[in-house]
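Ops channel
N.P.: pipeline sanity check, posting one input/output pair.
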């Protein structure tokens, strides 16, 4: 299967640069995966498509303010570091710009030395391992010195940092937001629960793959990044009960989907567990965990377009995207949503 099979034309002006003032006022394209039928709604209408007995699964990861801009201690050159993964003992995997200026032994200072990062390992593609040197609590220092690591296609400044967090974000560790969840408000979640829909939370920390394009022609040759996930016993029990009773499991976002499908592929059931997943879902994949998906509109030729194509059919997805472009939907992280039912 060629990467070009998942391409589509998108005018730059449809890439959302800022979030809407009201989270659930974004538009919602509803796609029936069996018939290809499309409806146009607003996100707060999602409650009309969720049925009593459904289980809604959200990713409660929280984005670190992980983008840091500092200076090389020896030359004063400006260096940008994006914290990606806590390896252990204050050693972090990071994406660096410009990487050519950072070698083993390089020290970068942030906030007049409040935080320093010493390069201890060089890897390919701009990746470096750093030892972080500081006094106090790292998260507090990051909240003071860091900013949200917005994707490279967003050029506007984010006025309110919390708009790149879901209202239920809890477990700190992501380098990017699980953006399908950005549309929910606390009020909407309460109404959903009152309708008799179970709400469950899993955790998957979004990592480097969010910033990595697919660079191979044949998609089967693509190597997925790995991301850390966890599921509690309480959630596993709820999901197993829903499955056994034939009730729908509705995933919010591709990150929740990858978590649920990973666990079901490994164990044939949901269970309390944690680990690293590099699952790659593309057409031909047989879904074992989810029945429906709430998601955003994804980048052309991305693994996420491949995932939704696996669920709804490539032709249905490309047709829906073409219609969304014609109807001037807003795309990507701060854009509108799709419900694949």
């Amino acid at each position: 299967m060629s990467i070009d099979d998942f391409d589509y034309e998108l005018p730059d002006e449809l890439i959302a640069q800022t979030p809407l003032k009201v989270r659930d006022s974004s538009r919602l394209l509803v796609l029936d995966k069996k018939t290809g039928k499309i409806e146009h709604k607003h996100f707060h209408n999602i409650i009309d498509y969720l049925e009593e007995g459904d289980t809604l699964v959200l990713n409660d990861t929280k984005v670190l303010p992980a983008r840091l801009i500092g200076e090389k201690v020896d030359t004063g050159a400006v260096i940008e570091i994006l914290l990606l993964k806590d390896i252990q003992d204050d050693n972090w995997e990071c994406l660096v710009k410009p990487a050519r200026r950072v070698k083993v032994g390089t020290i970068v200072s942030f906030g007049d030395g409040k935080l320093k990062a010493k390069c201890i390992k060089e890897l390919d593609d701009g990746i470096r391992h750093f030892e972080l040197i500081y006094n106090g609590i790292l998260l507090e220092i990051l909240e003071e010195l860091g900013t949200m690591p917005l994707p490279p296609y967003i050029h506007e400044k984010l006025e309110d940092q919390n708009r790149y967090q879901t209202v239920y974000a809890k477990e700190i560790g992501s380098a990017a937001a699980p953006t399908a969840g950005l549309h929910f408000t606390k009020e909407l979640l309460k109404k959903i629960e009152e309708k008799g829909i179970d709400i469950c939370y899993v955790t998957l920390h979004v990592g480097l793959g969010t910033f990595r394009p697919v660079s191979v022609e044949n998609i089967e040759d693509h190597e997925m990044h790995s991301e850390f996930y966890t599921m509690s016993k309480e959630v596993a029990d709820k999901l197993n009960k829903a499955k056994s009773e034939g009730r729908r499991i509705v995933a919010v976002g591709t990150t929740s989907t990858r978590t649920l499908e990973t666990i079901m592929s490994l164990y044939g059931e949901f269970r309390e567990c944690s680990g690293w997943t590099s699952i790659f879902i593309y057409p031909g994949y047989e879904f074992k965990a989810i029945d429906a998906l709430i998601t955003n509109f994804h980048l052309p030729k991305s693994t996420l377009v491949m995932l939704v194509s696996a669920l709804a059919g490539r032709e249905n997805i490309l047709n829906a995207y073409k219609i969304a472009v014609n109807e001037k939907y807003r795309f990507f992280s701060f854009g509108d949503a799709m419900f694949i039912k």
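N.P.: looks fine end to end. The mean pLDDT is 96.
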